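Run log, item B.
One chain of 539 residues. Sequence copied directly from the ordering sheet:
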Amino acid sequence: MAHFAQSPSFILHQVTCQFATGDILFGPLNLSLDASVCALVGRNGSGKTRLLRLLAGVDEPASGHIERFGTHVYVAQQQDISADTTLAELLGYDAIFAARTRIDSGHYEPDDLDTLDGYWDLAERLSQAFIAAKLPPFDPSKRAAELSGGERIRALLCSAFTADADYLLLDEPTNHLDRQGRVWFYEQLSRYQGGVLVASHDRELLAQVPRILELSALGLRSYGGNYADYRTQRDAEQLAARAALEHAATERKRTRARMHKEHDDSLRRSAKTLRTVDSLNIASFERVKYKGAAKERIGSWKKQHSDQNHALNAAVNQARERVEEDNAVMFTLPGSEIPEGKQVLVLEELVLPHVPVPPINWRMDGPMRVALRGPNGCGKSTLLKVMLGETAPVTGTCKVSVRCAYLDQHLSRLDLSQSVMTHLSLGNTPLEEGALRTRLAQLQLGAEKVTLPLAELSGGERLKAALACVLWREAATQLLLLDEPTNHLDLASVQAIEAALADYPGALLVVSHDEAFLAGLKLTHELVWEESGWRCESF
């Protein structure tokens, strides 16, 4: 691999990103990225995905330009696939494998040899990578939809790590990955010889990187060290910024008090001068001159004080810009209780498609709080869809006895051309518009976001919108089915939904590979996949 030692891989010159409305998302940014591992963090909607897309050349900046050196590979956090999308198409190698098929059959086209230049061993490299990643055998014609979300991510990462690129741009790569997949990814990342910029809220991943970039309203700031070092530096910065703001505000108050006294004293002196001049036996033109001088002094003081006040306000505003408001994220969940022992769902002799394990026999009673555990591809998402009636089991029955709501990890139920307000109205939400807007604002979805098409929101903002649509419907929910609810969320939002779910009075069935998140949910049981079958245990 041709690397550029101590040389930048990307240079950003006054790069600005803006919405279609003309509003600035971020910028202007000036940045140099070298061939090292670096994490990109920031609140949902700050523009992390947009920045990665700009670096990858997928999007163009509104202003400024980017210099790129060497080769790069971009792995997006969400992939648009259809039922017919093949694994080769998912990985972006469909043209290469089509050319290889034609050559092997003896009916190749003139350009096929050029297409395969450097890719003759691609199938072998991917096969080896799939084995190491504990994926099913590599088959370019295999339908991507047959893989779980985690398996598709691993396949894309296998492709990235074997591409021999100088730089990787990875957007939330550990979303959907099970424990085994995350360990594999961390190992691959530690061994990679090129540069990496990875946008992530994975605390375990952030603990391993040597540098962190934070994207916020204040711009793009670099912090040396891992997440703990970043938090220490950032907290120190904010402490200093708040102290500077307090000092500037105190100085403004003190100076204004002094100026007010000077102003009053000046008015008294001028009034006294005017009275004295009126009592003097002097010519009228001299009296006018003295009175004019007294009034001019007042005007001079007013201008001086105005200039001082402007400078004081500017100092306070400048100090305030360095202080980040701690806007708390709040999730409001429906308060729909389930009586103790009430039947929630029953699975009898249930066999899932594509999952070769013995039938499931299990009963869930309210208000049980259950973690659904197992590796990628074991059928966790499929089981949730069977419970919803969206997927038919091979054999057996599933009976759900209460109202339930489902959060799809791929957000496939959302029409991305519509806004969250439109979705909520179509769901016959009982909440008035004012209450809806307040709750959405608590999710960091302000007035400027709630009427935009969902396609224009970040991944984390879309997930919050999906949660709103799931939770604030006409009928109160008694069973929440949540499939990777923390994917795409920033750390503050993860902690907020964790706190809200901990107090949810209904039944809960959640799929997540975030152990820290699960630990905070006050779970009562876990339903665990094993090769010998599904096993339920209480805590």
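Observations after the first pass:
- Residues 11 and 443 are 34 Å apart (CA to CA).
- Residues 8-217 form a domain with the Rossmann fold fold (CATH 3.40.50.300).
Flagged for discussion on Thursday.
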